[in-house]
Write a structure and sequence with these properties.
Number of helices: 14
Structural class: alpha+beta
Helix content: 40-55%
Number of strands: 20
Oligomer: single chain
Distance between the termini: 85 Å
Radius of gyration: 61 Å
Shape: rod-shaped
Largest sheet: 9 strands, mixed
Strand content: 15-25%
Length: about 650
């Protein structure tokens, strides 16, 4: 297809609405490009946007129809939605789940490390309180407290950098944060300072001593916790006042909003290098709850502290699998093998799908090209069969179908030629029947012949031998169709050659029939014969001579009687030297001669009863006074009504002659 034809095809597919939308989009684009302002311009831009959306929809619909026209593309798209898209969604779900898992693990590691140090401070405070209660009364309080603090520092300074231990007799802070309890341990925020603190009351005979252990969360402290994590930053928060804010806004589940006031960033702490290209960092925001004590002594029991940090999945995985014990390597190898097997199976499935798609589309494409050959009129093209599957059987069926169509077309051509030949034979046969009826004084004649097929095997003839002599003949040729019509033509030619000579009016009908019999015996096969009846009527003497050669007897109806004309002999064309008999009848005035073929008396009704000669004669008696044409039509109608169907199994012929 040329570029011009492609352009023409696209142009034919563009409707008036598409063209209008295209013009509106172009106009709106120009208005936007040249920065035209104004209400009309803004309205034009809005309409252009709607038109562009419509054109995009039309373009997508056209692209979809073009893309999915090919079966191969349909199968590929179906394969993508059935196989690839679910796998991608599962992979995305796995990645997202892993991200959530690693985020939770990283949060847990940070929380657990802070919680461990808080518990450590609580244990130290408990030990100091127990030791303080066992000091002898003679011991100096200041000296004993210094010794206890020194012992704790010597043991825990490495894990708790910046640890301070204070003793005092003021329980005010404990009362504020502990809500009546004798101890407190947790995160404490005072201004811009965030610490892990443990406070414990130590009863004495002279009052209450309070020991306070504090570890400030400084840059150095953050550098020492959760070594599996990367960079760590703590964001101290305060209630949002509703005015402009510089930092991050955080809303709790109960709707309280906080804003960032101060950041604590771990010193010299960076994200670990990636092990593989898929080892992308996990960025986490986690919440730590602290107790806030304001400058005025107001206590907020729960104030969030946002911890922002990142980590490598490889580091977190190492932390998880580090605790698998002796079977750790076995589990890892099994997991890797499962992943490899999954990708191998997926690759095999994808390859199998592509191979099957190619096989299916190749077979369908072969069938499509074969239909193009058939459409062009080439029925000799055959689909190549490569496999014995359903598509192969379909291709074989297509080949059989085209072969059958070719045979049917050839048969149709032959049938058409045969119908043309039959039509010609019909026209020739019509020439054999009398085209004009003879005019004999005192004689009225009529005949009707209805062929069961295109051509008839029945024959009738009226031949004027002299001004007063008329020959009336009727015959029924054995068989039907073309062969019977050919034998009928031969019989007609022989009959006319015998009677259309001088003096034929005085020739015996028996002699005439004998000559016709010899002609048929010598010129036809042994299985061909004909029944024949001929009568010669002399209107001057009212004498009727006849010979019946095996034909159904014609009958002569007069006012008082009905005479069956059955003298003659056997059928024509069987025995060559057969001697026939001639009958003679003196015809009463106004008599009716009726001749017929067996097709007129053999029709059966629904009970299987034939119409018969007796009913035919009764039907003739009922219309005896009518014209020969009316009589002939009435007899035909009576036979058809008896059968109850217009279809006929044999040729139907009747001749009627009124002899006045």
């Amino acid at each position: 297809m040329t570029a011009a034809s492609n352009i023409r095809t696209v142009w034919d597919r563009i409707s008036r609405l598409d063209l209008a939308a295209l013009l509106l989009t172009a106009a709106g684009g120009l208005a936007y490009l040249f920065a035209v302002e104004g209400s009309i311009s803004n309205y034009l831009k809005f309409v252009a946007l709607l038109a562009a959306i419509y054109l995009l929809y039309r373009l997508l619909a056209w692209g979809r129809s073009r893309l999915l026209w090919s079966l191969r593309n349909r199968l590929i798209v179906a394969g993508l939605f059935i196989a690839v898209v679910p796998v991608l969604l599962l992979a995305l779900l796995a990645v997202r789940s892993a991200s959530i898992l690693y985020s939770q693990l990283a949060s847990y590691l940070l929380y657990e490390d802070v919680q461990r140090r808080k518990d450590m401070l609580a244990d130290i405070a408990e030990h100091i309180a127990a030791a303080h209660s066992t000091l002898p009364a003679s011991a100096s309080e200041v000296e004993s407290e210094r010794i206890l603090a020194a012992q704790s520092h010597s043991v825990h300074d490495r894990e708790l950098p910046g640890l301070t231990i204070d003793f005092s007799g003021d329980p005010g802070l404990l009362h504020n944060v502990a809500s009546g309890r004798q101890s407190f341990a947790g995160l404490l925020q005072q201004g811009k300072t965030l610490s892990i603190i443990s406070i414990r009351a130590m009863p004495e005979p002279r009052g209450v001593r309070v020991v306070t252990l504090r570890v400030p969360l400084t840059e150095d402290f953050l550098a020492s916790i959760a070594p599996d994590l990367g960079a760590i930053q703590l964001n101290l928060m305060q209630r949002y006042s509703g005015r402009g804010h510089q930092g991050v806004l955080y809303t709790t589940t109960d709707g309280v909003q906080y804003e960032n006031t101060h950041r604590i960033v771990a010193r010299n702490r960076f994200l670990q290098p990636a092990m593989l290209w898929i080892d992308t960092p996990v960025n986490v925001v986690s919440r730590l709850d602290s107790t806030y004590v304001g400058p005025d002594g107001v206590v907020e029991p729960v104030r969030p502290v946002l911890a922002v940090f990142n980590a490598r999945p490889s580091q977190l995985s190492g932390r998880m699998f580090r605790s698998l014990g002796e079977l750790r390597d076995t589990y890892l190898i099994a997991f890797v093998l499962i992943v490899i097997a999954f990708f191998v199976i997926e690759a095999a499935a994808l390859t199998t799908g592509l191979v099957l798609t190619r096989q299916i589309t190749k077979a369908v494409d072969e069938l499509y090209r074969a239909t193009q050959y058939v459409q062009a009129g080439d029925l000799s093209h055959r689909v190549r069969i490569e496999r014995r599957d359903q598509l192969g059987v379909l291709g074989e069926s297509f080949n059989l179908m085209t072969s059958s169509i070719s045979n049917l077309i050839e048969e149709q051509k032959q049938r058409q030629r045969l119908e043309n030949e039959i039509s010609i034979a019909r026209e020739v046969q019509d020439q054999l029947f009398p085209r004009t009826l003879p005019k004999i004084p005192g004689v009225e004649i009529e005949a009707i012949c209805k062929a069961a097929r295109a051509v008839s095997g029945d024959y009738y003839d009226f031949i004027q031998l002299s001004p007063t002599h008329l020959a009336i003949a009727i015959a029924d040729i054995s068989g039907k169709g073309i062969s019977a019509a050919l034998l009928m033509a031969s019989l007609q030619a022989a009959l006319r050659s015998q009677v259309l000579v001088a003096g034929s009016e005085i020739m015996s009908t028996a002699e005439l029939v004998s000559r016709l019999n010899k002609h048929l015996v010598r010129n036809t096969g042994d299985d061909r014969f004909a029944t024949f009846f001929i009568a010669v009527y002399d209107s001057a003497t009212r004498n009727l001579r006849y010979t019946n050669a095996g034909h159904l007897p014609s009958f002569l109806l007069s006012k008082d009687s009905a005479l069956h004309l059955d003298k003659g002999g056997m059928v024509l064309g069987v025995v060559e030297d057969y001697c026939y008999e001639e009958g003679a009848v003196l015809v009463p005035p106004d008599s009716l001669l009726v001749g017929y073929s067996d097709g007129l008396v053999e029709p059966e009704n629904v009970y299987g009863e034939e119409f018969g000669i007796r009913r035919l004669q009764q039907a003739a008696v009922h219309v005896q006074g009518a014209t020969p044409q009316v009589v002939a039509e009435s007899l035909m109608t009576a036979a058809e009504e008896w059968a109850g169907t217009p279809e006929q199994a044999d040729d139907m012929t009747v001749i009627v002659a009124r002899l006045q």
